[in-house]
């Protein structure tokens, strides 16, 4: 939990910034909509008067007043939408509603039991589509249909027993549908009995600050896309050397699928794609100006 808070600090700061922007836009909206209502009443009275006393009207005709009212009515101020980028304890409806507003987001939890016991842990459709870039059909609260192209990152920290209980849930359906195959797994080795009294974290803080600066810069670049929900993708090209490494890696994986690692063949089958994604992340993190 401590590490998660430190690593994720720029993201939570960014969320606070987005919320402050939302509060500012909401305050402006309240003033705009009140003025809009006042003007609407004035135009309605003008049209009503023209209907009741058509012979007494001077200047603008009834048709002109109607046109003004229609135009004004069609320009009602729209209430700003609050963006959510990080989800932890949510329902499927809240997730899809949120991703309808901003299609990029993540399940980020340092207490993953919330996810495993929550409402969304078996909604593999949108979760898998969020990994592969597929289209998800969503029905809004007002009954209208919309298509969402979610881009979803899932980062879950939990105790080994909680994770294993989830893996066995539903006779391994999370594994069979490919949901688990999209994860990268790691397990921290316990240091109980071997902990030192080191209290000098200056080197770690220095590295963390450099990491935070880069994350903040990338988030700043993405802010316009996030607030408008209009994202542009860059296509990266593998070099000849990278293609050779990818081919060799694929051959090694295929050999393992048929031998000692057949019990995790679903995970191995997607490991090449995961490796390419990690390479792309490292590439853009270090220099996102090249292809």
Q: What can you tell me about this protein's structure?
A:
This is DUF3987 domain-containing protein. The structure is a single chain. The chain is built from eleven helices and five strands, in the order ααβαβααβββαααααα. It is mostly helical and 291 residues long. It folds into three domains: 2-19 and 82-186 and 200-228, no CATH class; 23-74; 240-286. Helix 1 packs antiparallel against helix 2 and helix 1 (2-52) packs parallel to helix 8 (202-228). The strands form two sheets. Strands 1-2-5 form a three-stranded parallel beta sheet. A two-stranded antiparallel sheet has the order 3-4. The model has no long low-confidence stretch (mean pLDDT 86). Helix 3 links the parallel strand 1 (86-87) and strand 2 (104-109).
Annotation keywords:
DUF3987 domain-containing protein
Q: Which structural class do the helices and strands define?
A: mainly alpha
Which stretches of 5+ consecutive residues score pLDDT under 50?
none
Number of strands: 5
Rounded radius of gyration (Å): 27 Å
H/E series, N to C? HHEHEHHEEEHHHHHH
- Major sheet description: 3 strands, parallel
Number of domains: 3
- For the termini, the CA-CA separation is 36 Å
Order of strands side by side in the largest beta sheet? 1-2-5
| Contiguous helical run count | 11
Report the β-strand fraction as a percent range. Answer: 5-15%
The outline comes out as elongated
Mean pLDDT: 86
Oligomer: single chain
Helix content: 55-70%
Blueprint (SSEs and pairs):
Elements: H1 2-52, H2 62-74, E1 86-87, H3 92-101, E2 104-109, H4 113-116, H5 124-132, E3 136-139, E4 145-148, E5 151-156, H6 160-168, H7 173-176, H8 202-228, H9 240-257, H10 265-269, H11 271-286
Parallel strand pairs: 1-2, 2-5
Antiparallel strand pairs: 3-4
Region (Disordered): 54-76
Pfam family, one: DUF3987
Protein name: DUF3987 domain-containing protein
């Amino acid at each position: 939990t401590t590490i998660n808070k430190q690593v994720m600090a720029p993201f939570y700061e960014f969320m606070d910034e987005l919320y402050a922007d939302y509060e500012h836009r909401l305050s402006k909206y309240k003033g705009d909509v009140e003025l809009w209502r006042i003007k609407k009443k004035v135009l309605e009275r003008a049209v009503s008067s023209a209907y009741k006393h058509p012979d007494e009207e001077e200047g603008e005709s009834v048709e002109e007043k109607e046109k003004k009212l229609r135009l004004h009515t069609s320009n009602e101020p729209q209430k700003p939408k609050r963006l959510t980028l990080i989800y932890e304890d949510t329902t499927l409806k809240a997730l899809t509603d949120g991703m309808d507003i901003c299609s990029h987001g993540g399940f980020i939890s340092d207490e993953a039991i919330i996810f495993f016991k929550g409402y969304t842990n078996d909604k593999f459709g949108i979760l898998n589509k969020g990994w592969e870039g597929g289209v998800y059909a969503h029905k809004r609260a007002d009954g209208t249909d919309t298509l969402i192209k979610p881009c979803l990152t899932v980062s879950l920290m939990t105790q080994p027993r909680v994770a294993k209980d989830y893996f066995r849930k539903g006779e391994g359906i999370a594994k069979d549908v490919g949901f688990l195959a999209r994860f990268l797994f790691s397990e921290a080795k316990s240091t109980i009995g071997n902990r030192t009294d080191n209290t000098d974290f200056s080197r770690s803080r220095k590295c963390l600050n450099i990491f935070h600066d880069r994350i903040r810069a990338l988030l700043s670049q993405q802010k316009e896309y996030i607030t408008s929900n209009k994202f542009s993708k860059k296509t990266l090209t593998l070099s000849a050397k990278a293609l050779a490494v990818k081919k060799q890696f694929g051959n090694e994986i295929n050999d393992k699928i048929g031998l000692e690692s057949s019990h995790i063949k679903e995970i191995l089958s997607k490991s090449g794609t995961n490796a390419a994604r990690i390479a792309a992340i490292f590439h853009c993190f270090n220099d996102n100006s090249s292809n």
